[in-house]
Amino acid sequence: MFAILAVIYAQRRNKEDSTWICALVCTGAVIVFYVFFAFRGYVYSDWVGYSESYKDVEWSDIFAITNKNKIGVIHEPGFTALMCLCSIFTREYAFLVIVITTIDTLLFIRFLRQWQVENIPFAFMLFFTFLGVGLMFNALRNQLAIFIFMNALIYIERKQPLPYFLICLLALCFHVSSIIFCPLYFFLGRKLNKWIFLGLVITFFVFYISQISILLTALKLLGIGGALGEKAEIYTEGYSSARALSPTGTLEKLGLTMLVFLYYDKLTSDKGGTIFINSLLLCFFFYYVFGEFYVLSSRLSMLFQYSYWVLWVKLMGVFSIQNNKRLYGSLLFLYCLYVTIQAYPTPIQEYDNLLFGAKSQEERMKIFNKTFEDLD
Q1: Which of 47, 201, 226, 294 is the most buried (most CB within 10 A)?
Q2: What pTM did the predictor assign?
């Protein structure tokens, strides 16, 4: 649906008296996006923990950063405060999802407009393909932090550090991983040589397939061995399966890398091009270099997944020949379709919508208990 709307927008965009058609297309895409996410049923797995937390949340929890009953769980004060505010109206988990999706949608649209991504359906298609669905369904705290941070990037372009750091601090109130965003003000806006960009991506990939452990390497460089080194070796060997090499995923990443490399100058001359290329570099860094730790690698690389949603759109703009644009768009759509078909094999991923009839929490809990395997 988003692909069809994206084609309609692209065809009508430069024609006279088509402004209202383009506006209608974008509005329709936003409505579909919002209804799909805001009124979803109890899909994926994290709703189990979040619904329980929302049911029991109290105002005093805002000041309780850790949970004495759950080891390793951190309660970010911003998200806890949001749950408390929503609980004033109802303890129904679906209401919390609606509120969060409303915030996310507004922040996402604002972000796209800041960087002149006019073909919103196109961006939504990429969002659905590249981790957007999992992010929205299974990471309520993380998604808020990421969307908040995405709206801080414009201040790197404007060279305004104060609002940038304030927004990063706000993102930190929703997810602790946002601490990574703070020092990036000094890196994301710096243009690298395109050969350095290509060399770094290749280095990350070679590091990944070489089975070298980043943890063991760091310990050796620091001169730390003995029992600690042996424990680290046992631990990292236990996670060797995390380094599975996906042929399609590898071709996708290397293909995007080569396209960015070939059109590096055009992309960096565009508004925000340097920021998104450097973000892509960080995405690959965390994905490949920390590949031995499946959860850490996926969570950290996800922080910079927004680079995918923008760079694929911006690459469309670098082609001057219309037939090349059509070929690029067609191939990209087919790949997105392929990824989507392969991405949802488990029963807990079955989608339903509260507006059109969804399974109850009890029904979904039965499915969850019978079929869910925690890959983390």
Answers
A1: 47
A2: 0.88
